[in-house]
Design brief:
This protein is of the alpha+beta class. Helices cover 33% and strands 30% of the residues. It contains three helices and seven strands, in the order ααβββββββα. The strands form two sheets. The chain has a four-stranded antiparallel sheet. A three-stranded antiparallel sheet has the order 5-6-7, with helices on one face. A hairpin with a 7-residue loop joins β6 and β7. It starts with a helix and ends in a 7-residue tail after the last helix.
C-alpha cells in the first residue's frame, strides 16, 4: 500500500472519530453542580463523608468539604479530577486561586473565582479537618 494512501486513511479515521464524538455530545465539558460534584467526589474517594459542596459559579470546579478535610474537584473534559487539599496549598492570584499539587499527573490548577467566592473557599481550605 502506498504511504500516501495509508496516511489519508489514518487521518480520515481519526477525523471521523473526532467528528462522531463531537456530534454525540461526548466532547462536552462537564458542568459541576452540588449533586454532580458530590457523586464525582465519591467516585474518586468512595469512603469519604461529604459534609458540604461549594460549586464554582463557572460550574467548572467545586470545593468539597469532607470528614477528612477539604478537597477540590474539577472538570476535565466530560469527567472529573479530585484532589485532597491541605492548608496553604492554595494561593490567591489576581483572578482567583492557584492550587499546587505534588502530583505528576496534575501538577497545578489555576481557577478563576470572583472575590467573594475566593475568600469563602480560602477560609474553608485553611480550616483544619476537625473544625470542618
Amino acid at each position: 500500500m502506498a504511504l500516501e494512501l495509508l496516511l489519508a486513511l489514518v487521518l480520515g479515521g481519526i477525523s471521523g472519530i473526532a467528528v462522531l464524538l463531537h456530534l454525540t455530545g461526548r466532547s462536552r465539558q462537564a458542568v459541576l453542580g452540588v449533586e454532580t460534584s458530590r457523586s464525582g467526589w465519591l467516585r474518586h474517594f468512595p469512603g469519604d463523608k461529604v459534609l458540604k459542596v461549594l460549586p464554582a459559579a463557572s460550574g467548572q470546579a467545586a470545593l468539597v468539604v469532607t470528614g477528612n478535610g477539604p478537597g477540590l474537584l474539577w472538570a476535565f473534559g466530560s469527567g472529573t479530577v479530585g484532589r485532597r487539599l491541605a492548608p496553604g496549598q492554595a494561593r490567591e492570584t489576581a483572578t482567583g486561586l492557584r492550587f499546587e499539587f505534588n502530583d505528576f499527573a496534575a501538577p497545578g490548577l489555576s481557577l478563576a473565582l470572583p472575590e467573594r467566592e475566593r475568600q469563602q473557599w480560602l477560609a474553608l481550605i485553611n480550616t483544619p479537618a476537625e473544625a470542618a
